[in-house]
Amino acid sequence: MTTEHSQYFRTPKPRPIRPPKLHHATFMTMDVDAMVAFYELVAGLQPVYYAQHAAWLTNDEANHRIALLRLPGLHPPTDKPHSVGLHHTAFEYDSFDGWIDNYERLRDAGLTPVISLDHGMTMSMYYQDPDGNGVEIQVDMFEDWAVSKEWMWASQEFSEDQVGPQFDPEKVLAAYRQGATKDEVHRRARAGEFVPDQPRTTVTFDDPWPARLAADPALADGVPLPPTQET
Question: What's the Cα-to-Cα distance from 145 to each of 6, 141, 162, rounded to whole Å?
Answer without folding.
Answer: 30, 10, 17
